[in-house]
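Supplementary Note 3. Input sequence used for the single-chain structure prediction.
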Amino acid sequence: MPNSSSLLLMLSGNLFLQAALALSLTLLLHFIKIPALLLSGLFTYVHPDDVAPNNASSNGVRAAIRRPGTNDSDLKPRKKSKERFEFDENKAQIFRLKLSDGHLQTRIYFEDFRSVFNSILVSLSCLLLHRFLPKSEESGVLKSGSFVPILFGFLGVGRIFVLIFRVSSERSASKLSEKHLSVLLGFLGFIVSLGIVHGAVPKWVFDVHFEALHGFEKLFIAIFMGCVSFFLYMPAVRIAHAFWLGTDQLRCNLPIVSCGWFARLLLHANYLVMVLTSMLWVKPFTDQNSRIENVTKLVGNVGMQKSEFDSFRLWCLLVSGLLQIASLRSNVQMYLNEAVLCWYQRLHASKVPDLAYSRAKVFLHNHFVCLVVLQFFLPASMVLIFLGLSQLDDDLLTNYEGVCSILPCSLLDKEVALFIAWWVLFVWTIYSSVTLALFRQGILCVS
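The predicted structure, written as discrete structure tokens, is reproduced below.
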């Protein structure tokens, strides 16, 4: 057993280790471009702009890299020819490109994805290191090194919310009706979370506790949860689309649309773990025998001790967040394949297909691919960061009056951080499940 002097020496080195880890990872990630490697090799699609080999001005096949609607006729006049009602089969083509670092550099939001990916990786690494370092409540924030993971954790959460707000405000990335529905769901999420934190929702519904929070702090948490409900709608709908196509629920038997067996296994595992984890905070699934004081045994055929069950819930949150990141490539590929499905449907819809809509959809999916990557990546990162913050069990910040005079210290309680991590996953699961149910009933369709 180390004596008090050696323990103090170890604790004083925690800050140095945390700072060294953060600095070295930041420098290393600047040279090793993991975000580019994560997206490289995905297939994107480009609709032909013009397929007229006999036309000298066209120079053969040209792909539509520019925005739909622009035409060479806007630049120089052409002689009007008689309208042709026969569809030229040569124009029924689509090009498949493999994304590389050069292609990704031209996509909007790629630099934002690379920067937020690096910062979140540094934050999670510091939180993980803090878990294994020796700690003491008497050593303070600086000597114990807790200042570094807390700082990077809150900076990561701030960057996530700024990017989600920017992505959600992108006008061409989603329909106006979807934005209105997001606002409505955000307001409903605020009302529900306000009822949860104030105890209006019966305690037998959710296994959450907010006894340490006061009036203003509860209102702040409710607003925060309402914003989460607003931001998560479009990403969850896109995840549902990716799952529907990736698992070939359309039964179209098109190899270019569906994915391989391993990616399909990831998609199924990701969804099932999300549903399981979100249900672990619902009281009918985790009910305890309230008639006996100091209950340590959970009721319901699971036979776990309460401490074991709490640890199991944390592990499920961790696995769910990691599975969402592991299935990122599959979800992004399905998003790109959705444009191919639209092109295929429009091509075979009639004898004289009108490919203007599919051409616009292919362009937008190609143009906003990194925006969708952010929508898939940020919610999973939020779950992992808040889960890591909930494991800072030394309550160091609540012992400093200077910090508590600036921030409401009860908001830094581990139960609040754990509730936020669960709420993100819970809302994400509800949106995805409802969308998949509407697909199953034929009310919505992927097109």
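The chain has 17 helices and four strands. Strands lie at 43-46, 48-50, 62-63, 95-98.
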